[in-house]
Amino acid sequence: MSLKLIKFSAIWCPPCRALQPVWEQLVDEIHDVEFEAVDVDNEPKLAKQYKVSAVPTIVFVKNGKVADSMVGIRSAADIKAKIEELK
């Protein structure tokens, strides 16, 4: 069972910049989950593939399939709770 988090964001997006320290904290703390960061301006096809309509969006992919997503700024605790739920 594998879990991957994909963070879709953009350099021009203030909420995305606000989420960055939370994301970095999660990457440092959680080692049994894969993390990927995608800039929607550089990877528009990937954003479309995952049906991202706003940034920041975190998409949770479990065993290769989208299991859930979160839109907007979220706390580390919120994201960790979702990770535990999906593990």
Number of helices: 3
At CATH's second level, what is the architecture? 3-Layer(aba) Sandwich
Largest sheet composition? 4 strands, mixed
What CATH calls the topology is Glutaredoxin
**Into which percentage range does the β-strand content fall?**
25-35%
Please give the CATH class. Answer: Alpha Beta
Structural class designation: alpha+beta
Specify the helix fraction band: 25-40%
Termini separation (Å)?
8 Å
Overall tally of domains: 1
Within CATH, the superfamily carries the name Glutaredoxin
The overall pLDDT, averaged over residues, is 97
Topology:
Layout: E1 3-9, H1 14-29, E2 34-39, H2 44-49, E3 57-62, E4 65-71, H3 76-86
Parallel strand pairs: 1-2
Antiparallel strand pairs: 1-3, 3-4
Tell me what you see in this structure.
The chain has helices at 14-29, 44-49, 76-86, and strands at 3-9, 34-39, 57-62, 65-71. The chain has a single domain (3-86), classed as Glutaredoxin (3-Layer(aba) Sandwich). The chain has 87 residues and is α+β, with helices and mostly antiparallel strands. A four-stranded mixed beta sheet has the order 2-1-3-4.
